[in-house]
Fold:
Amino acid sequence: MRTMTINFGGEEYPARLIDVSGKRLISIHRLDVALMTKDGCYVSEEARAIDEGIFLYVPEAMIAKDEKTLVQYVKEMAA
Structure:
């Protein structure tokens, strides 16, 4: 599992690359909110490209959990 950050709108958002039926990029809900308008549209083409690369958004506290816990959570939420 690889830890990284996604830069958008002058902020850095934590992300992790995990193995759930292949390598999947996950990040936090706060990034999802930053990428979208209140009407549910992307704020920019950059936002669309970022969102299309994210498999799942998780609560901020979950992104720092150990790999086993995080993978289990993602499997449950994606089912």
User: Anything to note?
Assistant: The longest strand covers residues 11-19. The mean pLDDT is 95. The longest helix spans residues 67-78. Helices lie at 29-35, 45-52, 67-78.
